[in-house]
Amino acid sequence: MEEHFKWEINGLKxxxxxxxxxxxxxxxxxGVEDPRINxxxxxxxxxxIERLFGEQFAEMxxxxxxxxxxxxxxxxxxxxxxxxxGLHAVLDSLLDGKDKAEExxxxxxxxxxxxxxxxxxxxxxxxxxxxxxxxxxxxxxxxLKTFQKIWQEVLExxxxxxxxxxxxxxxxxxxxxFIDAYSMGRFLDYTGFDLCEKNVRNxxxxxxxxxxxxxxxxxxxxxxxxxxxCFIHDVFEHLSVEAMEAAISEVCxxxxxxxxxxxxxxxxxxxxxxxxxxxxxxxxxxxGRTKAIFEQYASCVQVIHIDAFLKSKFNCSDTHNKGxxxxxxxx
Length: 331
Ligand SMILES: C[S@@+](CC[C@H](N)C(=O)[O-])C[C@H]1O[C@@H](n2cnc3c(N)ncnc32)[C@H](O)[C@@H]1O
What we know:
Helices cover 45% and strands 17% of the residues.
């Protein structure tokens, strides 16, 4: 590793290592970050499903994206302190085909999904689980597991050739734990690594038989083209621009086919906006500049601006993070 990166890596270890192990296990899998409803995590699972099974599950894929949108909408509604009676009124309006319930305007993608759902209709449950006194209780886990159960069922009898996948900056198996729970793990020869040893310990405790290792994205411990695919979420913004460019080069070096990379803080501007915080970064990355780095190694880079994608596909205009982008780079 180049000398000037050593100082940065020590700082990154210090920044992530300062957190309590228990907190690292849970803080990135809650609320809008919950991979069951986070659109970028859903897209990553779909990326893997499509590499394994082609277009076979196209309908499920669309329905799971709708599920993610609707639970995100409900979380925002709950933040406005809507009452349980208010939620029931939304359900009544949906059943009556109306687009408004008291003060709540119901987005088109909610009514459209509601109208298209057969039994069981999870939206009925989502709007009526709260006890009448309060909505200040979490959405029950069995509802958040709606698509987990569906994927488990549909994948149960499936066969496919295993694909090798690497995930740099895997945290405490934040995404892998759902890949496993959704019965996708058996199709993958998976390697996850993270700079923070506490994260690796958490991941190994949860999955003693899966390859989780301590590792640095600036010098990935693997030969060229070692993996068919790579996916990565929310790591590049935390590196200096020089380190980010080196990390992209490393990720492309070890990947034979495609990289699916999620960014949480990107924009269409021409320059990166560099923001150092303590020993790490929270940069706002230029989409064009970052794409150009991938293009040095990839034959084709597809850019998905999550907000624009959801607007065009579902007419959804209320996504919470306008800076979320996913790149799919083909080597
Ligand atoms: C914001 S977290 C994202 C974790 C996980 N990918 C997710 O989306 O939930 C960033 C992760 O990158 C890891 N990380 C930071 N710098 C790294 C490096 N140089 N090499 C490998 N992992 C790194 C951190 O330890 C942390 O777990």
